[in-house]
Amino acid sequence: MAALGITVALLAWVAILLLVSIWKQVHSSWNLPPGPFPLPIIGNIYQLDLKNIPKSFTRLAERFGPVFTLYLGSRRTVVLHGYEAVREALLDRRNDFSGRGEIAVFHAHKDRGIIFNNGPTWKDVRRFSLTNLRDYGMGKRGNEERIQREAPYLLEALRKTQGQPFDPTFVIGCAPCNVIADILFRKHFNYNDKKCLRLMSLFNENFYLLSTPWLQFYNNFPSYLYYLPGSHRKVMKNVSEIKDYVAEIVKEHHQLLDPGCPQDLTDSLLVEMEKEKHSTEPLYTSDGITVTLADLFFAGTETTSTTLRYGLLILMKYPEIEEKLHEEIDRVIGPSRIPAIKDRLEMPYMDAVVHEIQRFINLVPSNLPHEAVQDTTFRGYVIPKGTVVIPTLDSLLFDEKEFPDPEKFNPGHFLNENGKFKYSDYFKPFSTGKRVCVGEGLARMELFLFLSAILQHFNLKPLVDPKDIDLSPMTIGFGNIPPHYKLCVIPRS
Ligand code: HEM
């Protein structure tokens, strides 16, 4: 009897879900951009290749045009494809789509910090962090010097490999990790520091797992899948371990805080928290500060580190490009001076290679999800408040007219006929508009300076014939994750 009751209750529950889902979809489809027909509960997930969602978006854009509607589970989602649509949404309508679509697995960061904040504190926390990051050197000479101070440590760690094969993931990753750790916490890790290696492995594992099909699936059905086993649990556990580590640093900084003399971003945020200690609705809480710093720590490490690692693999496949870079570095910088940002003006080839690496690897192909903050009319359609908006970045980076033969790695995409650097407004790996990456200036400096320093001192030696190097990502999802590989670095003198 009891079993029958449970079965009936379950069936009734499923029926209600189906009806609600159909009602929501039919009712709210009015005046939305076109799109494929969604099924109840799963929406259009069945029409997506979970191993390559960005490619599915491209195929759907060919069918439905540059602005189309999808249901990811029950989430109404509008995908923007191509330069005009993405630019129009992120720049001309910058306020309307400045919300952040939920990424369920980062529940512990939801509506706090910067990246996953879709709440009322986002604007102020972002603005305050940006200003202070600038004060601590972001975009100014402070960061250039910080990166230049780090470069010798990186070169030393590479020298220690003594020409033997090694996996570059953590050796290379330590450099950007130390740069951001200095800005945030005034911390510097040795390249074999256990804690640093642990943190980098958490960042690295999360970036990989987030890009696997299971996590693409999980993020759209969190309420159904929360209690099931699966790699989403590992991501949440990693997020929580990173957060605990940062919370400990915040606590230490708080105990030693001299409000008159903040020395890093943690101090600056704590000073703000102290100022509003008696407020009933404080903007800065200890948990909010922890999330803000954790956001910057992993975003500031993993993205730049992955780009450098992918970049080295690409250069090994094209030794003739590496050779040209050596020639330019020797001519402009010479064998011993530490590379500087002013060198970029005289190094159009390196500048073009760095841009082409970022374009080609297409690190975050579908961008981070945005959200409509109010009902918005866009190109004659109505996009209701709360709709997830995906302004794809690969549709700009792989635009065939702007970058002919876009699947091919070709620094010529960023050079004019005189060999000078050629700017492209389609180059938006950091996105654009109100949510544009907070670390764009820092990341671009790091990529140029670290890559120049590595190639100034080393030749890259692959373990296989360059022709056999496969540049395809290991997984495509949230990010394009490079394949695992080993290399040797051989001192040039
Ligand atoms: C190659 C390196 C990097 C790439 C390709 C990259 C890319 C991106 C992208 C595509 C977004 C989403 C923008 C949007 O929602 O429209 C983003 C956001 C963000 N990035 Fe980066 N990023 C990089 C490096 C960094 C660094 C070094 C930092 C830290 C200093 C950083 C901090 C952030 C933060 C805090 C956000 C969230 C902004 C917001 O939601 O308001 N990123 N990044």
UniProtKB/TrEMBL annotation:
Membrane topology: Peripheral membrane protein
Pfam family, one: p450
Reported cofactor(s): heme
Key words, A-Z: Endoplasmic reticulum, Fatty acid metabolism, Heme, Iron, Lipid metabolism, Membrane, Metal-binding, Microsome, Mitochondrion, Mitochondrion inner membrane, Monooxygenase, NADP, Oxidoreductase, Signal
Localization: Endoplasmic reticulum membrane; Microsome membrane; Mitochondrion inner membrane
A single BP term in Gene Ontology: lipid hydroxylation
Gene Ontology annotations for the cellular component aspect, listed alphabetically: endoplasmic reticulum membrane; mitochondrial inner membrane
SUPFAM superfamilies in the cross-refs: Cytochrome P450
Homology family: Belongs to the cytochrome P450 family.
Protein name: Cytochrome P450 2E1
Naturally occurring in which organism (per UniProt): Carlito syrichta
Protein's gene: CYP2E1
